[in-house]
Fold this sequence. Notes:
This protein has 278 residues and is an alpha+beta fold. The protein is 17% helix and 27% strand.
Amino acid sequence: xxxxxxxxxxxxxxxxxxxxxxxxxxxxxxxxxxxxxxxxxxxxxxxxxxxxxxxxxxxxxxxxxxxxxxxxxxxxxxxxxxxxxxxxxxxxxxxxxxxxxxxxxxxxxxxxxxxxxxxxxxxxxxxxxxxxxxxxxxxxxxxxxxxxxxxxxxxxxxxxxxxxxxxxxxxxxxxxxxxxxxxxxxxxxxxxxxxxxxxxxxxxxxxxxxxxxxxxxxxxxxxxxxxxxxxxxxxxxxxxxxxxxxxxxxxxxxxxxxxxxxxxxxxxxxxxxxxxxx
Length: 278
């Protein structure tokens, strides 16, 4: 069954699914769909900023806000998302671990940008967002948005089967790279699209991914005017769920300073490492 995915037009399918999910429907019907979604995935409604009856589409609920104070920011280097920290570790020889026995290329992952070499020998943190999770992405550190890259690609699922079966999965799927200049040097936050997750947006620019007409060219933009984000400020949104990888340059962290094991569940704002306080 999984092998059939190779023949499915995943980008078009995901775009169509997104249109359906964000179609406004009568409130009673939307509320029914949301309650079924909540039961199926175990969503915590007590954290949602609005009651179920306020949403006009399933997609609007999927990108819901949380009540103020639900995610305190615990330090200067924090998790950018709610989700599962699949793995953290070192980038070695220009390759990043994907799953046991498989790696993907750092340079390809960052769209061929010359900043890639900065992260060789540094740390990576790989997060997975499930359907039940809060789907906004936040800055893991305080920094200035220096550059973004929209890297076109496929929209394979990012489940265990794909991790084990698709070579260079994270360097093949569509992704958005945000480069922050911070007290720790440059930090990369990479949002990775997946099947049914064709639409990604960022707070600091107006582009939207997986929207026709599609280009095969990497779109790179520098931001000479300051766009400053504090740790925990909203950076972007998945309009369905997927994965985020954070890259930190060599010399910033020692392994013993990382405060979380992997795999483990994390919450946005949870402190990841014992770096010096701001």
